[in-house]
Amino acid sequence: MTGGNWVAHPGGDGVPFTVNIRQSSSELVKDIEDFKVCTEQYYLHVDPAVEVLATTEFPTVHWYHSTNGVVRVPVIWTKKWGHGRVFYNALGHHNDVFDVAEAWELMKRGMLWAAEGKREAVRKGLTIDEFKTDRKMF
Length: 138
Fold this sequence. Notes:
Layout: E1 4-8, E2 15-21, E3 35-39, E4 43-46, E5 51-58, E6 71-81, E7 84-89, H1 101-123
């Protein structure tokens, strides 16, 4: 449901890296610029249906994946699940990452956006009935 799977965190905790904001139509990233953090940098497998809002570059730390060259891995994204909204943010292994103003702002915006999804679905009269099926889906 979240749209991604954790693979590794090369270098463990305390890795300095840049979060690259991907400008899009999403209001969640409006007026937010790239920023630096020092925390665990997650190498993730990501659902192609997500809307990527921010990425980071690997490798920062030399490890087995380094021979693949530079790759961009999503850090923050949104997606839909039924009529619901999913906001994922890989930052926050420690609370102090939110001392970075941009990280804190993105977390607040994302959580509010996800929470407002229910109100929107109710306002539009949407229900889960359209997703019911007797077909095996997993």
